[in-house]
Design a protein that fits this description.
Elements lengths: L2 H8 L2 E4 L2 E4 L3 H29 L6 H22 L5 H26 L5 H7 L5 H20 L10
Antiparallel strand pairs: 1-2
Helix pairs in contact: 2-3, 2-4, 2-6, 3-4, 4-6
């Protein structure tokens, strides 16, 4: 379906985090809100894994399990996103979640392979850990939540 057909079928578009979202499809925003909340919740553990993996010395089995849970969590979110309609906002969230998954996986490879030689050079490139994409993910979540909370529905119902 073309963008023009989408717009006429779904009502007028509104901007969410720089992307056009047809707010008549509240289900999309609800599903994205749940995915975003989970992704944001995973950030704390992702940062713990990254920080621990970048420290010199041995790594524990508990850290490996935590890293596995975090990357699996991001993978499950990406699977949910793949089942959603093709939409600019869905693509943006998928890219952000993919970034988070990849950065945790890379940190674990670095940490468990013990690259002591060249550690300082690698650490300079990781100075922001999750960096700007982590903030962007949180910003998109807040914006989606705001849109869901402030939307006036034609049928008078609020999302639940």
């Amino acid at each position: 379906m073309s963008d023009d057909a989408d717009q006429s079928a779904a009502g007028s578009p509104e901007s969410v985090a720089g992307s056009v979202v047809f707010l008549a499809d509240v289900r999309l925003l609800r599903a994205l809100s749940t995915i975003l909340r989970t992704a944001v919740d995973l950030q704390r553990d992702a940062a713990r894994v990254i920080d621990a993996c970048l420290e010199p010395g041995g790594k524990t089995a508990d850290l490996a399990r935590l890293g596995g849970r975090v990357t699996s969590g991001y993978f499950r979110l990406r699977e949910q996103l793949r089942s959603m309609p093709d939409h600019p906002l869905v693509r943006e969230v998928d890219a952000l979640v993919n970034y988070h998954q990849q950065i945790v996986e890379q940190a674990m490879l670095f940490g468990y392979r013990g690259f002591d030689a060249g550690r300082e050079k690698v650490l300079r490139g990781w100075s922001d850990r999750l960096g700007a994409p982590a903030q962007r993910l949180r910003d998109v979540y807040v914006e989606v939540q705001r849109r869901l909370a402030n939307r006036e529905y034609q049928d008078g119902e609020r999302p639940g």
